[in-house]
Amino acid sequence: MNEIDHETLHLEAAVFRRLRDHLLKERPDVQNIDLMILAGFCRNCLSDWYREAAETRGITMTKDEAREIVYGMPFAEWKAEHQKDATPEQLAAFEAARKAHG
């Protein structure tokens, strides 16, 4: 992978924090399944990517630790406060999106 200059690294980190904080503070109502349907990624994907990036730098991180960084709290707590059961319509849209992009 190409080295990223110091300024780019800081800008990209700021963008990540803004996205994370936006999903956490401004739009906790947006369900992960809706993100997956529309964008092909969700908060869990962000936490997986975060953990993978840590591992490439030699930092050991559990799935739960990465999720807490992205969700701003333990995942179980966030799930209890914000996650709703997927509707049949969401599940059908998710399956259609998965087939179209899979």
Automatic annotation (TrEMBL):
Residues 30-95 form the SMc04008-like domain. InterPro entries: SMc04008-like_domain, SMc04008-like_sf. The lineage of its organism: Bacteria, Pseudomonadati, Pseudomonadota, Gammaproteobacteria, Lysobacterales. This is DUF1244 domain-containing protein. It comes from Marilutibacter alkalisoli. It comes from the Bacteria.
